[in-house]
């Protein structure tokens, strides 16, 4: 059906689609359009009614409103050292907000593994692996893997300090009596330093505790009831709706006989060991540090706990897609996406 000079009084109900002319500018009535015609200006994204030389704006094209996404990013914790050893440092922890994330932004999430524990015959331990969020419309967020615990190799071979990381590993036993071994440094804003390892006289061999997200690792205790250094406490977060503690440091090794292992920090770091007792691994998906090993134990030192990445946004804004099989939960007000392995979220 073709019509000419059709006038509509009151309202017009159209089923299907209406094709509106698109023009490059709105300085005047586009060629071929009469006064009263509707057209769209693709340059300024406005809808106009042609009315002589003064066209009237009647609508504006708008895209979906960008929205904020809260995050918690925890890297993998460092392993404990292999003998006469310090505890592993917790993985770095970052929490904040990604502001004004736009439509069709793909957030690439990397979840770092914990450092693998080592035998007393090995050399150094293993740092945890970084966790991160990357995307085209955001600044990359990277939490640094925890540092491994230091250790003593025996004989004239130098002892090692704890390694630096998100939180630093605890120092191993000193080479000679009265000597301390330094803990590793934590990354500012992510974690804390590891504690000192200590060597006294006799069997006073005590590793330092690994650093945690909210507290430095404690030094190995040189008293008669010698104990390994306690791992630094982690930080609690309720981003999932339930309070959970993340990124506690691993405990240092206690002396061979009569001593006590350092306890893990904040419930997520692992305990250290004493003679003939195995170490404990850091808690998975919390970034806890691994426990430091005593000498001559056939089991390896504690593994660092793997990391985690958690996103939270208003449920009204959750319309995207995910890969990597994260856990998606909602309480009506907020939707939480918890990644325990690497994946993506596309807004």
List keywords for this structure.
mainly beta, 2 domains, 0% helix, 24% strand, rod-shaped
- How many structural domains can be distinguished in the coordinates? 2
In N-to-C order, the SSE pattern is EEEEEEEEEEEEEEEEEEE
Helix content: under 10%
- Spatial strand arrangement across the major sheet: 6-5-15-18-17
Task: From the alpha carbons, calculate the radius of gyration and give it in angstroms.
Answer: 30 Å
- How does the helix and strand content classify structurally? mainly beta
Work out the number of β strands: 19
In the predicted model, the low-confidence regions spanning at least 5 consecutive residues are none
Query: Can you summarize the main beta sheet?
Result: 5 strands, antiparallel
Question: What is the oligomer described by this structure?
Answer: single chain
Q: Number of helical segments?
A: 0
Content of β-strand: 15-25%
The rounded distance between the terminal residues' Cα atoms is 43 Å
How would you sum up the global shape?
A: rod-shaped
Q: What integer is the average pLDDT?
A: 83
């Amino acid at each position: 059906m073709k019509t000419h000079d059709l006038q509509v009084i009151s309202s017009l109900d159209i089923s299907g689609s209406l094709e509106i002319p698109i023009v490059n500018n709105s300085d005047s009535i586009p060629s071929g359009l009469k006064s009263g015609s509707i057209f769209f200006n693709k340059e300024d994204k406005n809808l106009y009614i042609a009315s002589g030389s003064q066209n009237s704006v009647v609508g504006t094209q708008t895209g979906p409103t960008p929205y904020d996404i809260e995050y918690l990013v925890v890297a993998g914790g460092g392993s404990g050292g292999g003998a006469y050893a310090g505890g592993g440092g917790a993985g770095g922890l970052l929490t904040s907000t990604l502001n004004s994330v736009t439509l069709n932004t793909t957030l690439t999430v990397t979840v770092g593994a914990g450092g693998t524990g080592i035998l007393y015959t090995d050399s150094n331990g293993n740092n945890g692996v970084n966790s991160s969020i990357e995307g085209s419309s955001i600044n990359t967020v990277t939490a640094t893997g925890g540092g491994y615990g230091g250790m003593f190799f025996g004989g004239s071979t130098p002892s090692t300090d704890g390694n630096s990381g998100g939180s630093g590993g605890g120092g191993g036993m000193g080479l000679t009596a009265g000597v301390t071994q330094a803990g590793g440094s934590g990354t500012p804003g992510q974690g804390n330093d590891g504690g000192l390892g200590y060597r006294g006289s006799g069997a006073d061999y005590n590793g330092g505790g690994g650093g945690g997200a909210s507290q430095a690792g404690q030094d190995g205790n040189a008293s008669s009831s010698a104990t390994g250094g306690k791992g630094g406490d982690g930080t609690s977060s309720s981003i999932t709706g339930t309070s959970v503690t993340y990124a506690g440091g691993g405990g240092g090794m206690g002396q061979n006989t009569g001593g006590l292992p350092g306890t893990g920090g904040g419930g997520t770091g692992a305990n250290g060991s004493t003679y003939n007792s195995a170490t404990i691994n850091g808690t998975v998906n919390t970034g806890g540090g691994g426990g430091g090993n005593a000498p001559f134990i056939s089991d390896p030192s504690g593994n660092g706990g793997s990391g985690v990445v958690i996103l939270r946004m208003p449920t009204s804004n959750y319309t995207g897609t995910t890969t990597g099989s994260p856990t998606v939960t909602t309480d009506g007000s907020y939707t939480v996406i918890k990644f325990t392995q690497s994946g993506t979220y596309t807004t």
